[in-house]
Design goal:
Blueprint: H1 26-40, E1 45-51, H2 53-56, E2 66-72, H3 78-92, E3 101-107, H4 108-112, H5 120-127, E4 128-133, H6 147-154, H7 157-170, H8 174-200, H9 207-217, H10 222-233, H11 239-261
Parallel strand pairs: 2-3
Antiparallel strand pairs: 1-2, 1-4
Helix pairs in contact: 1-3, 6-8, 6-11, 7-8, 7-11, 8-9, 8-10, 8-11, 9-10, 10-11
């Protein structure tokens, strides 16, 4: 992998590996592997993956969360979602090294299909580290930092903004606003990065680096994007921060993104 996250052939390299998992996080990763196999190993699970800072080797004890992607043989059901929610709580319980557990569920057909290949498929092939089962990455394309990839990964920001506004209006506490701000900030930074990704010609998942790359192409919004990256790492419940993200930077970014790459078609759910 070169300094822009690319393999020798110019395609995006897979960014994590089990070898990079910091020692402090290895016990919870081992527990996750074992419990996923026990809970979903009744024929439902095709494969399981780690993603985020833990397999990239950049996780911070007590701050980073444990992120997991499960590929199921069929589309997720209410039972699957309930089991995943219970497993999130179980893995998080009593573990000071992590700040929460998140489990994403997808069906294999969704990940390999035409509409998902450059969305969830890209996510699994390049941003996820195999943990259990047969790696779906071997059945997916080699991806380049293209406008198609930009559209299919983050071209739905305009659809998300109204939902975020509704959640911000309904937030009853600073803790609620802090959780919302973290998710919104991270998505805004990733969208800002993929806006300029084809011109930059590479891939990164690092929030600070993403903001800096964006800022080189859009200096008039650079300070806002740096602030968003900071909130993504250390969230705050300040209402002014949410307003900046949802009512100022977000709408500008959605309009600019659609003009550059087009709008991603809505997905079910």
């Amino acid at each position: 992998m070169n300094e822009r996250g690319l393999s020798e052939d110019g395609t995006i390299a897979r960014e994590g590996s089990l070898e990079r998992v910091p020692a402090a996080f290895r016990p919870v990763v081992a527990a996750a592997r074992a419990r996923i196999g026990e809970v979903f190993g009744d024929g439902r699970l095709h494969s399981a993956y780690l993603y985020g800072s833990v397999p990239r080797g950049t996780a911070t004890v007590g701050v980073s969360d444990l992120d997991l992607q499960l590929a199921l043989r069929r589309e997720p059901t209410a039972r699957d979602r309930a089991d995943a929610s219970a497993l999130e709580a179980e893995l998080d319980r009593g573990r000071a090294e992590i700040d929460g557990v998140g489990i994403l569920l997808s069906g294999v057909e969704e990940l390999l299909g035409e509409r998902g290949r450059y969305d969830g498929g890209f996510f699994v092939a390049c941003l996820c580290t195999p943990l259990l089962g047969d790696d779906l990455g071997e059945r997916l394309p080699r991806y380049r930092p293209s406008s198609l990839l930009a559209r299919e990964t983050n071209g739905d920001l305009a659809l998300l903004l109204p939902r975020w506004r509704a959640r911000a209006a309904e937030a009853a506490s600073e803790a609620d606003r802090t959780r919302l701000a973290r998710g919104v900030a991270r998505r805004v930074v990733r969208t800002g990065f993929t806006l300029v990704m084809p011109r930059w010609g590479g891939w990164t998942s690092d929030l600070a680096e993403s903001a800096e790359i964006f800022g080189r192409h859009h200096p008039e919004r650079a300070d806002q994007m740096r602030a968003a990256a900071a909130v993504g790492r250390r969230p705050t419940g300040d209402p002014a921060v949410l307003r900046m993200l949802i009512d100022d930077l977000g709408p500008w970014l959605a309009t600019t993104y659609t003009a550059a790459h087009g709008e991603k078609a809505p997905r079910a759910g």
